[in-house]
Every structure is written in structure tokens, then in C-alpha cells.
Specification:
40% of the residues lie in helices and 17% in strands. The protein is built from eleven helices and eight strands. Helix 1 packs across helix 11 (235-246). The structure holds adenosine-5'-triphosphate (ATP) and magnesium ion.
């Protein structure tokens, strides 16, 4: 059961790709758990879930009870095996969604119950759960550390035409290597005539390109009308189907 993490600079299309991959995999008959680990928290709408669940970080008492301890001590292995069942919301095509919320993080992450709880939850989900997992995350992964990210099979880094998102991709790959994520690839999104240039830059950085998604105004329309991209359809969604074919999920 493949575990896919989606990363990249702000606004490049991480959530669009995550939500669409999740729905397509679910339609293929997989049991899919989508995790919103991005502080901007909008994976629900990309999945077509109208009433997003309350983020886990808002359940402070639960987190303190599980991961907290007396006088600033916190547990490294809090109980988390019931969390997906209790807080996961089921959406269209039976995709299950868990929204993590915003955990304060510095370079190495905060030493607090919330951080400990989220790391334990991700470890559990990535290593123990027998579902396909799609993780919509922000660009930084350093605060998660090796033990937490070990279960990630592939990290997709979304880039858009523009130097900044390519720079970010380079940084993400460096971090991914540091925390032992072996397989990664770039997805070029919002592509126009500039694809060759971006491919060249990515090649220089040693990042293989997994797929190219064209700029598609249908996605803007979907966003404005609060329709999941997969329910809107169009060229971009077709391109994401293509990417799925290349991830060799189907053989598993
Ligand atoms: N291929 C595309 N063509 C046109 N618009 C797109 C495309 N992909 C994404 N968008 C639009 O770009 C905007 C940002 O996309 P999305 O929210 O998926 O990015 P993100 O990386 O998750 O952003 P954030 O960092 O804020 O979480 C949205 O309005 C989305 O509809
Ligand atoms: Mg997002």
C-alpha cells in the first residue's frame, strides 16, 4: 500500500494534486487515507468534502492527555492508533480525510506534546496502516525527522514555472535525502511553453520529472465554485491520471 507525500513551495498546486490523486486511487478500488498536513488546510475542498473536520491540533485536551506529562515532560510514543478511526471523515469515493492543523515548528520542531503527538500519528499512519496514504504537506520536512518519514515510498515535489519553486524543490530534495526518503520526483504544474526550461533546471538538480500538468482554467473554475478538481475534469485532471499510471501503484 503506497504512501505518497506531496511537497513544494506555497501555491504551486500541492493540494490540487493530492486531492485528485486520492480520489483517483479510491476510484481504482484502493482504501485511501488523505492527510492534510499543510498549515493552509484546504485538502477537504480538493477532495470534494463540504464540511471539513476540525483540525486535530484544536483537540488540545486530548493531545495533552495522550502526549503531555507533568511539568513540561511529554511522551514520545503517545497512543494514536485510534485517531484515524475517531477523527477521520469519509468523503466522496470513500476517501478518508484527517486534518492535522498547525503545529508550531522551528527548524527541528517544537518540543511539545502537539509535535510529539503529530509525529507519532504520522509514524503510525506511514508504517502501520494498511491503506494508500496521500500526505499533503508544506515544503519543510526537516522537523519530522527520519523516524517519522521512513514509511514514505515516494515524495512528489510540485513545481510551477518560475525560479523560486525550482529552488524550493532543490531544497526539499536535499532534506528528503537527509531523512532517507529514497524516491522522489518532480511534477511540473501549471505548465505552458516553458516546460523545456524547467525540465533542464530540474535535470541539473538531479530531480527526475514524473509528470507535467498543463495550466488549466477548469481548475480555477473548480476552485471558485468549490468543486473538487476531479469532479470538474479537464486536461489537468487527465494529466494527473497519467502521473498515477507512472507511480506503479497498480501492481501492488
Ligand atoms: N494546473 C493548474 N492550472 C490552473 N490553475 C491551477 C493548476 N493547479 C493548481 N491551480 C490553482 O492554483 C491555486 C493553488 O493551488 P493549490 O491550492 O493546489 O496549491 P498549494 O500548493 O496546495 O497551495 P498552498 O501552499 O497554499 O497550500 C488554486 O487556485 C488552484 O486552483
Ligand atoms: Mg495546499
Amino acid at each position: 500500500m503506497i504512501k505518497i507525500a506531496i511537497s513544494g513551495k506555497g501555491g504551486v498546486g500541492k493540494t490540487t494534486v493530492s486531492g485528485t490523486l486520492a480520489r483517483l486511487l479510491a476510484r481504482d478500488g484502493y482504501d485511501v487515507l488523505a492527510i492534510d498536513a499543510d498549515p493552509s488546510m484546504n485538502l477537504a475542498s480538493a477532495l470534494g468534502i463540504k464540511n471539513p473536520p476540525k483540525p486535530l491540533t484544536e483537540f488540545e485536551e486530548l493531545i495533552d492527555e495522550r502526549a503531555g506529562g507533568p511539568a513540561g515532560v511529554f511522551k514520545l510514543n503517545p497512543k494514536v492508533d485510534d485517531i484515524v478511526g475517531k477523527f477521520g471523515v469519509v468523503g466522496p469515493d470513500n476517501v478518508k480525510l484527517l486534518v492535522l492543523g498547525t503545529v508550531e515548528r522551528g527548524g527541528s520542531g517544537c518540543m511539545c506534546p502537539a509535535s510529539s503527538f503529530m509525529k507519532a500519528l504520522l509514524r503510525h499512519v506511514l508504517l502501520k496502516i494498511n491503506s494508500v496514504v496521500i500526505l499533503d504537506m508544506e515544503a519543510g520536512v526537516e522537523h519530522l525527522g527520519r523516524g517519522t518519514t521512513r514509511g514514505i515510498d515516494i515524495m512528489l515535489i510540485v513545481v510551477e514555472p518560475g525560479a523560486r519553486s525550482i529552488e524550493t524543490a532543490g531544497r526539499v530534495v536535499e532534506l528528503a535525502r537527509q531523512i532517507d526518503i529514497k524516491k522522489f520526483g518532480a511534477v511540473i504544474n501549471k505548465a505552458g511553453d516553458d516546460v523545456k526550461f524547467i525540465e533542464k533546471r530540474l535535470d541539473e538538480l538531479g530531480i527526475p520529472v514524473v509528470g507535467v500538468i498543463p495550466y488549466d482554467s477548469a481548475l480555477i473554475k473548480a476552485d471558485m465554485e468549490n468543486i473538487a478538481p476531479v469532479d470538474m475534469g479537464g486536461n489537468a485532471v487527465e494529466a494527473i491520471k497519467n502521473i498515477l499510471g507512472k507511480l506503479s501503484v497498480k501492481q501492488e
